[in-house]
């Protein structure tokens, strides 16, 4: 008798808590967590601002059709955190692979972020690689309290292009909804829904046969002045120099949104890291450094620094 193969549902529940110990000159953030395979958390660390930095490990070799990953994050009042991943997420193809599901099954990841008043969350995982005929859907729901801030950077590669592979009959979907709870009701800060498949991959109004898409969004804790916003956008746009691909950056209600389309996940990551640096500087926080668990051979900030030095 044929044994039924059950889908894998991985769950990670994370909570970040602000601490004010008497022996420390400044508060810092700690975390509490429970994980269900294939999720696993590696050792956390803290930066000079007391921010808790934690990498999430996906212990399987990748995800397949029918798998579901759920990430629940609560950031308590005054806490700050940076969440990343240890390696790129691989999504294997499922279209036409089985007689039971000839049209394939979707692999899905759902993320729910609840960020309390005066808290700060940065979500910067490594890229997602969708193999040929893979079906992947990701959803992000972000609930912000007053004076809370959220930064997200997301990169996806459609097909293993180093071997000439494309997405073929696969599909990538993404939905992000960011709202803020105010005394007079809900304010929608940012809503973005995308689907890449078929003609959208080749159309000049879509991916134009480029395999890499990157998206960054930052929702500020409060309103930015016209001068602050203008200077931030100018700095982010100037930092595109020396990087390949099409990059755009624009203002949203309370923050900025950036998009990358091209062939290099490194170029997308480097540009987003430079934007991250400008955001940190604008907020008077510690300057970011290359993440300790990422296999980056070059420093993403060096070329940008040299460009600025040459202009002087």
Structure description:
With 312 residues, the protein is mainly β. It has one domain (9-311). The chain is 14% helix and 42% strand. It has 4 helices and 18 strands. The strands form 2 sheets. Strands 3, 4, 5, 7, 8, 10, 11, 13, 16, 17 and 18 form an 11-stranded mixed sheet that branches. Helix 2 (226-238) packs antiparallel against helix 3 (265-282). Mean pLDDT is 90; it is low at 308-312.
Label this structure with key terms.
312 residues; seven-stranded mixed β-sheet; disordered C terminus; globular; mainly beta
Terminus-to-terminus distance: 74 Å
Q: Could you report the average pLDDT, rounded to the nearest whole number?
A: 90
Secondary-structure element sequence? EEEEEEEEEEEEEEEHEHEEHH
- Could you describe the largest sheet, including whether it forms a barrel? 11 strands, mixed
Main structural class: mainly beta
Blueprint of the fold:
Layout: E1 9-19, E2 28-36, E3 39-41, E4 45-46, E5 52-58, E6 68-75, E7 80-85, E8 89-91, E9 107-115, E10 120-123, E11 128-130, E12 135-144, E13 149-158, E14 171-182, E15 185-196, H1 199-202, E16 212-219, H2 226-238, E17 246-252, E18 255-262, H3 265-282, H4 302-311
Parallel strand pairs: 1-6, 5-7, 6-9, 7-10, 8-11, 9-12, 10-13, 11-13, 12-14
Antiparallel strand pairs: 1-2, 3-5, 4-5, 13-16, 14-15, 16-18, 17-18
Helix pairs in contact: 2-3
């Amino acid at each position: 008798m044929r044994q039924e193969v059950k889908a894998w549902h991985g769950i990670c529940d994370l909570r970040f808590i602000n601490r004010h110990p008497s022996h420390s000159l400044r508060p810092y953030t700690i975390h509490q967590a429970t994980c269900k395979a294939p999720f696993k958390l590696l050792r956390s660390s803290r930066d000079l601002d007391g921010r808790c930095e934690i990498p999430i490990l996906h212990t399987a070799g990748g995800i397949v059709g029918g798998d579901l990953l759920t990430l629940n994050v609560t950031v308590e009042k005054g806490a700050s955190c940076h969440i990343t991943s240890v390696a790129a997420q691989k999504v294997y193809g499922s279209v036409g692979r089985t007689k039971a599901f000839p049209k394939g099954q979707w692999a899905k990841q759902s993320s729910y972020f609840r960020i309390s008043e005066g808290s700060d969350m940065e979500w910067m995982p490594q890229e997602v690689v969708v193999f040929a005929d893979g079906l992947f859907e990701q959803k992000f729901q972000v609930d912000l309290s007053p004076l809370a801030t959220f930064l997200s950077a997301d990169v996806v590669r459609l097909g293993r292009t180093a071997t000439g592979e494309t997405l073929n009959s696969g599909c990538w979907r993404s939905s992000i909804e960011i709202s803020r709870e105010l005394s007079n009701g809900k304010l929608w800060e940012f809503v973005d829904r995308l689907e890449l498949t078929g003609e959208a991959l080749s159309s000049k109004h879509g991916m134009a046969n480029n395999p890499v898409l990157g998206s960054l969004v930052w929702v500020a804790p409060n309103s930015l002045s016209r001068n602050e916003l203008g200077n931030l956008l100018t700095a982010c746009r100037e930092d595109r120099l020396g990087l390949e691909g099409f990059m755009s950056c624009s203002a949203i209600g309370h923050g900025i949104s950036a998009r990358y389309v091209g062939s290099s996940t490194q170029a997308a990551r480097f540009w987003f890291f430079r934007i991250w640096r400008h955001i940190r500087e604008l907020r008077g926080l510690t300057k970011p450094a290359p993440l300790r668990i990422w296999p980056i051979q070059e420093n993403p900030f060096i070329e940008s620094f040299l460009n600025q030095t040459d202009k002087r």
